[in-house]
Design goal:
With 141 residues, this protein is mostly helical. Among the domains are: 1-29; 66-99, no CATH class. It is 43% helix and 9% strand. It has six helices and three strands, in the order ααααβββαα. The chain has a three-stranded antiparallel β-sheet with strand order 2-1-3, with no helix packed on it. The longest helix is centred in the first third of the chain and has 22 residues, at 3-24.
């Protein structure tokens, strides 16, 4: 091997080493790739915006929500009218609840006596717990 060939081999090795170092550097890794956009700043919300709602925004947010417990809605679909404390069914129009009369239907005396007898506690046994009642109801459904 001549001196000229040895010099060329050393130069090639030197160029490979430089190329390797550039390729492994941060600058070399980003070479030829599009410039990344800076990240948008994070805006923290500690809740103060929600704490100071205007009455109009509260009314808009609560529109269509069930009314408070005990409040009544009158819904009309065609000639059928129903009353609920939740949303009116789809296709029904909500009407204003007017003052009116309430008709109370008296229960059947035989059915009322049977229900009272079934509800009476057994004197020899303790009253069932809520869990036992829930299990019994689930089994009998």
């Amino acid at each position: 091997m001549s001196l000229k060939q040895a010099a060329i081999a050393v130069a090639v090795l030197f160029m490979l080493a430089i190329t390797w170092r550039v390729a492994q550097s941060d600058w070399g890794r980003h070479l030829g790739q599009p410039v990344a956009q800076p990240a948008a700043p994070i805006q923290f919300d500690n809740g103060t915006v929600r704490q100071y709602d205007s009455p109009a925004s509260v009314a808009a947010r609560n529109k269509g929500q069930p009314l408070p417990l005990g409040a009544l809605r009158k819904c009309q679909r065609g000639t059928e009218i129903s009353y609920t404390n939740s949303f009116c069914p789809p296709g029904a129009k909500e009407l204003k609840v007017d003052k009116g009369t309430v008709n109370v239907v008296a229960p059947d005396p035989a059915a009322a006596a049977a229900a009272a007898k079934a509800a009476a506690p057994n004197p020899g046994q303790p009253a069932p717990t809520l869990r036992e009642l829930a299990v019994e109801r689930a089994v009998h459904q």
